[in-house]
Amino acid sequence: MASSSSSPLPFSFLLLPFFFFSIFLNPSNARLTFDFYKDTCPQFSKIIQDTITSKQISSPTTAAATIRLFLHDCLLPNGCDASILLSSTPFAKAERDADINLSLPGDAFDLIVRAKTALELACPNTVSCSDILSAATRDLLTMLGGPYYPVFLGRRDGRSSLASSVDGHLPKPSMPISQIAAIFTQRGFSLEEFVALSGAHTVGFSHCSEFISDTYNASSYSQYNPRFARGLQQACADYKKNPTLSVFNDLMTPNKFDNVYFQNLPKGLGVLKSDHGLFSDPLTRPFVETFAKDQNRFFQVFAKSMQKLSLLNVQTGRKGEIRRRCDQIN
């Protein structure tokens, strides 16, 4: 009998290298990486950075608008697939036209269009709209002084967007805090992570129509600092004639990403009912108090939660597409 060292290898064993090689090449098995565009679009990071810098300087509300757009895309059941960017068609009403999304600021949509246009010129049919949104959100956060976190890349864009899929999956300021928390915990976030993500209200603004009735309601008025409530009433006096009237969520440092939002809540300086709820609810109050005292802890949890949010139900390989235009499927 020949020794085992001289026996021919079984056919199935000879196929193993090809099997593993084919898995590696198969685009349907693609995985997200930090340097996904290193070879296919080496200018990716610079183009994103140049685009957001130009847009943020000309329109300072862009950062907060983009953070909100990112949240409204990723928190839905279909996850971070840029479906929020798709326009409605004669056959289907898209997510962006659901009632809760009608107030999404146009600056965020415009930013993504600008970045996509620049990337298509540099690297045609290479970079997904969902990767643009994820990377731009992180870069804008750091531009405002927020925490840096690595962004995984290699997402594909979704091929459908339905307004009917939105209801109940996005937080509304009028919801009790327990209901808002449930939206996040059902998506795998802890209460601490939910409170940290709520800290995005340290930048941006809210329309008067979202909160002004609370400043006149006896039960909710008690949550406000009285002087602050009167100031909100004066600022929003003409909101019925001008529905675009709005106020900063953080009156103290409205254009800086910091923990002052959490410091405001115990003082009755929250704008929205949901802001007050974070401090009045005994389950979330300890996290508000911790983040108010410790900005490093807030940044640490916020960064981890944003990265986690950016990975919800992402599509890779053949499961999605790279849209040529972010507002329509190919």
Automatic annotation (TrEMBL):
Location in or out of the cell: Secreted
Binding residues for Ca(2+) 2: T202, D250, T253, D258
Single Gene Ontology BP annotation: hydrogen peroxide catabolic process
Cofactor requirements of the protein: heme b; Ca(2+)
Keyword Disulfide bond in record: yes
A Pfam family: peroxidase
Coiled-coil blocks: none
Disulfides per UniProt: C41-C123, C74-C80, C129-C326, C208-C236
Protein name per UniProt: Peroxidase
Taxonomic source organism: Clitoria ternatea
